[in-house]
Amino acid sequence: MRSTEYPTSSEKVNLLSQIFKFLCVGGFATALHYAVMFMLMHGASWEPAKASASGFLISAVFNFMLNARITFKSDRSMLHTAPRFALVCAAGLLLNHLVLTAMLSLGSHPFLAQIIATFCILSWNFIVNALWTFRNKKN
User: How far apart are CA 89 and CA 60, in angstroms?
Assistant: First the structure.
């Protein structure tokens, strides 16, 4: 988008398409995160924060691969994008942990707390990944 002009209709459609793809990829990653968390909490008796962190990290690998190819269609190499994505994920993991533990300390059910934490990091992830992690060379 040009810095001095309003976005064109085409640019708006492209952004909406990108957000839709991000939400689909994120939905898959979130479902994977929650499934791993559930299995570790109920199958291995892990505490919620530890189970959530493990689910988050496993889903992050899939999230990276799918966002690089589908959502952002990055022309940058994995050597460029992977460390950036890892930093965004680390910040997201920290934010996830802080929100989750705060909600648990208030007596919230672990899965309600996780849903709230997920919504807190959704916007952060899209904005930082779009503007920094996967930003194409031509932009």
Answer: 7
